[in-house]
Amino acid sequence: MKSNMIPNIKETDFWRIRNFLREIFLLNGRVESSWHVARWDYWRWHYIKTCQVFKSYEKVTTTWQQEDESILAVLHPIGYGEVRLHIHPDFRTPEHEDEAFTFAEEHYSDVTDDGKRILIVPVFESDTLRQKVLANRGFKKVPGWGHHYWYDLDSSLPSRVSPNGYEIRSMGMLDEHPARCWSSWRAFHPDEPDEDYSGYSWYQNLQSAPLYRRDLDIVAVAPNNDIAAFCTIFYDDYTRSAVTVVVGTAAEYWRQGLGKAVMIEGMHRLKDMGCTRIFSTSHEEPADALYGSLMKEMKVSDSWVKVFKK
What we know:
single chain, alpha+beta, Aminopeptidase, 29% strand
């Protein structure tokens, strides 16, 4: 299959890539051998627009396309030396993957605090083709902390949970953004000084993502009107699948079952919409404990790391 490598993309390509990800997600049996389209949206509207890991998504995204401009593969960094390769199963060969990771080494590696240049590629334990390609290129496996969970919603669901005194409901309007963002800060930065809190303007970026919907942005509200926990879900009705893109509980409200309550509420709402599969991915123990307590299926990815000689 002949292809042309195109190092930069245009705005119109971004939208074609969204549909490409949907296509290969279905061809891969709705397992995340490539990104779910929700993660592509979250990368642009949060990692780039808010976190500003890159100034432009266009200049760090490479595609391989046929002469008719149909996309065969997409390569891009997500930040901090980590890259993703999304490839059509009919185009997937050791030669094409080697070409992609050769390019990644030249253009997408990062420098660590101690001055080392590295490149990181997450790979499923079952993906022997990619493992062999990376091993031949000098990558070493770091055993996995990527736990990729999913739940088929056409099976029975856990019963809804209503912790005593808390209201489980959809996210409010603009006036609730400060409370929601403070909850996020307390969930993910509980040991950092309050003066490092950067405010809540980023939340409108998240709401700008095409798959965002407020009825799938679920919060647990405490009796004092604090937003104690949250679960933001992106649902793609084309593939009838969804991703929990942000789940957390403010430190003051840990260990009360609130994370599970907002996730279960989301699962019920998704099923009513016709969604048949939900995904959650963890890279640390608190999230892993939550997802592991709810989800039925899980795959592990290892980090394959190359440290370059100075």
